[in-house]
Description:
By secondary structure, the protein is of the alpha/beta class.
Amino acid sequence: MSWIGGKKALRELIVSVFPLYYERYIEVFGGGGWVLFHKPPGNDFEVYNDFNGLLTNLYRCVREKPDELIEALHFVLNSREDFDIVKNALARDSPASDVKRASYFYQLIRYSYASGLTSYGSQPHDMWVNFPLIEQAHRRLSKVVIENKDFEKLIRQYDRPVSFFYADPPYFETEKYYKNVGEDGFKKEDHIRLRDTLMSIEGKFLLSYNDCSFIRELYDAPNIQIESYTRINNIKQRYDNGAQFPEILVANYDMHEREINSPSQINLFEMKNGLGKQGSEYMTKICIMTWNTSLYVEKTISPICRKYKSIVNVVKGQLEKENSIAFLQEIPYCSNETWEEHTLYCALKKDFPADEYDIKFTVSSKKQIMMTIAIAKKHTIESNNTAYNDNRTISVKFKELELMGIHAKNGNQNKDYLKSLNNSNAHIILGDFNAGDYKKSENKDVFNGILKGHTNICNHRTTVFDTSIDHVFVHNDIVSKCSNLIVHKEIKCSDHFPITFEINI
């Protein structure tokens, strides 16, 4: 979300210098939440804080009442008159309803000039395009504690040896901008108070600031690391092309510890018999998703239907991770048109444009249904035409790693379909097998035929019906490299839950 001082342009850099280990993550000046939303969710305890009560109320409504908020925003108008009405209502007698306050505040953010909340932006903006973003933020915030506290009280409350505080305060001598968003201003004394508070904590902190002598002198102390960098100055760009804005990061730990502990990357594999040689010090992380979308039940799928948009947003979020691949099952296709002309494929091409993404699939007949597709950022994967492919199975390669996404037929057809996959050389075979624990399955022999040397790393409940039919089988030579497998039960766009995991090779 656009916000004064937002860290959209610097979020990648900031997350890259996070400490290697912490159990508590506290964002002291949350603002638009760019760093929190970019930071991968894990097992750490997360806190978002901001002193602006309207902002924290908005995020609480996104977390707890997303449908009500979307409903309140359904028919708002992008007009100067409505902007002034909403602005005056918030300034005069703020609505009693938390959802109404949140909807008014969100309108001001979206329709104001530079998100400053004071003047009408006079720019076209379709509020409806934000609804999937609200749903996505709702899921991300589901386990995040949202606070509305003064920074000193917050830091004292959550400080522990395992705590990590990221602080992005109003930059020095920019106080006037923050008065526009309901703050009393961040004065020189507050900068000093923040320094004194951070320098006395048990945990770790990372601080972003504008590069100036006052701040450098403030944090000129033993065991404090200061790193400088620049970014494009968006304001000066209008009249001075290429203008840079100098900034600094300040930390009470070594900001290079991730870099030091991360081996240099050269290749995915030095291959031997299709699998990686032991002893290589080089590593590549691959992020993989498998998900039965259940879009087939939407036989007359509309590209703008809420379910489809929610699925697209989840997948896009996954694909923002480096070297990420998504296997999606139950993509419907049953039409008098060709697949390339089909409504759903046209929607997918629009949402995953060819200049940015690759969509891999196999069309085996005009009337096929239950397609499985693989999606990744451009040049991440290539088709594996030497392996098994049909409308239900797609085989791809990531460098020398072979992956197969499947959606096996169910009932009496399950055994015969699985037989067709025999002698697969895929390192990873994943998807909807329409069967539970293969060791107990009546089709055990068939499973063993395609899963020679593989281990199932996902034998969890993967559907809303409390069944375990989605699996991830990884070759034993690389299974130890897998980590962070998550069944995302909080995502309820389908009767199956998306499954994600990582592999470091």
